Input
Amino acid sequence: MDAIADRPKEYKYGFVTDVETEKFPKGLNEETVRAISARKNEPDFLLEFRLNAFRWWQEQEPPRWAHVEFPPIDFQDIHYYAAPKSMEDAPQSLDDVDPELLRTFDRLGVPLHERERLAGVAVDAVFDSVSVGTTHQDILAEMGVIFCSFSEAAQKHPELVKKYLGTVVPPRDNFYAALNSAVFSDGSFVFVPKGVQCPIDLSTYFRINASNTGQFERTLIVAEEGASVSYVEGCTAPMRDENQLHAAIVELVALDDASIKYSTVQNWYGGDEEGRGGIYNFVVKRGRCEGARSKISWTQVEAGSAITWKYPSVILKGDDSVGEFYSVALTNNKMQADTGTKMIHIGKNTSSTIISKGISCDQSKNSYRGLVKVTPGASGARNYSQCDSMLVGDGCEANTFPYLEIHNKDAVIEHEATTSRISDEQLFYLQSRGLDSEAAISLLVNGFCKEVFKTLPLEFSVEAVKLLEMKLEDSVG
Amino acid sequence: MLKIRDLKARVVDGPEILKGIDLDVNAGEIHAVMGPNGSGKSTLSRVLAGHPDYEVTGGTVAFDVNREPQDLLAMEPHERACAGVFLAFQYPVEVAGVSNTVFLRSAFNAICKAQGVPPIDAFDFRDLLAEKLELIGMDESYLERPVNLDFSGGEKKRNEILQMAVLAPRLAILDETDSGLDVDSLRIVSEGVKRLSTPHNATLMITHYQRMLQYITPDIVHVLMDGRIVKTGDHTLAEAVETRGYDWVKEAA
Output
């Protein structure tokens, strides 16, 4: 193998931005919750929402059922709010934002300034607990599309936030959902009104910078009757020996004939070869196909995080609604992933598709866990699931945990699963035809993941391919 | 074109299998290397292609690139392919998710790139494929199927020759290409190989039986036993082996 393949590549987003940060003291109690709400100058209903969640959370035990191992988290040893000092007086435009913060996003490949920013994508950039800025807001506003940070939405559109927040993921849904509902800091809010097809992709870039800090983002996307939107999320964090908690909630609501496409390219720091450090990515993502003929589609490329624990799901309530889940989860070093989806069929003639591709390398653990539930009234429900695993090397683990709860006898459910291995023999075969090891791996991985990659917006698909190739070179080379 | 001198090799950390091979192959020649099971035939082919399971313990292999002899053993497997060496595998490997067309075009363009030639576009490549498919008696349905996946034994072997036809190597090493083929496939594959042979390239057929040699008359036949070439002759040697067996060669040697 060539020298490049022998040397593990640095995690290229592992740098720390040197800005003065305001942090709340470590620890979580009712005062912390009140302080976060006060800092964000929130309406009373939000404080009530938070306190209600917090009081329930206090009485709960953390769940342990996932196929992942980690020491108990000390929830009192975390800062629940961190923000650059320069963001304190809420800059009105990007011109007023600390250049150091803008440079950080430049380095991450997400320039925010008008001159350099990506043409076809509007970006909300979240740094620790605050949104630094949102691009293209004016153009979107002309069409009636609201795209802003969650904090801004709470100020400017409290009636919409109140109407939809917690309707898909109730505060008492589970332990981490309650934690997030109590202490969520920032995230994005999207509202696409009746009949509007959002003309550009919307995206949020989440960056963790401060140490010993949790990130608790909250995203809410609502598409009214006949509206459609494509939303993309990216994430990175510095390399540190400590573990950091990222417990987010994403809620999607699609009314009649609406469609929401939500794509994630997740590259949080995943820890080193010994399993030191990395992000705990414990996230609740759920969409509700509220209206008839509505459609929600999740695509995720999970390539980072020490532990990934999430199941982007769809509740198919509207008749003829459609849910999709396309996933590539790659684990290397000692990373662990327990991810999949839930498709809950309630309306009539609903259909769902699940395509999951797990790639495990080195000593990592990669599990698919998925539920397909068909309620008694969901006549004509259809589901197709395909869960494929690829093993790279001998020390890794791949598992599939499919759950079926079918309470309507005319449901049509299909499930396929395969396990394959990138073998030395396969690599040699491709090399003996003129492809170097990099090109050979790229061909194999693209082949394995192509059904998922083709569902991503083009530029993100290119990025996803590169990301996986880079990670795999370390493991296969 | 190929000059092998005193080549010794073994499976990594295993016993020596090749115990000193000498072999010269010139452009325009078809060679057959015959030998009983375990004589080292497949090892020779894999060592020439650079298989990572084997380690060379002695000797040299020079392969002419632009008429200059190069140290083949110092090259990575993909560099050998780009220099014009092709191994038709005894057991072709299945590659799920990658279609034959994508695979062939990636490989073709990788070789173009290494040789400083511009890549071929999709339309021209389609024409090239159509022509080569006909040569091997394969239809277009093979192109969109994942490489070798769920192919029958015979289809896999044909697919190897299709790759050879498309990549147009200067030295083709056929490792037991005749095994596992029915009579019709054997005839088609053999005729394909024969038609691909030109004054500018060379073929090294590794075989246990004389089956393929009924269709292709080799210029030179070598008998390999216990890691050494014990006898070299013309095509009549292959016939003699077929009728009198390898023991006869051993006694004669």
User: Anything to note?
Assistant: Strands of chain B lie at 2-11, 16-25, 30-34, 54-65, 68-71, 85-88, 171-175, 202-207, 220-225, 228-233.
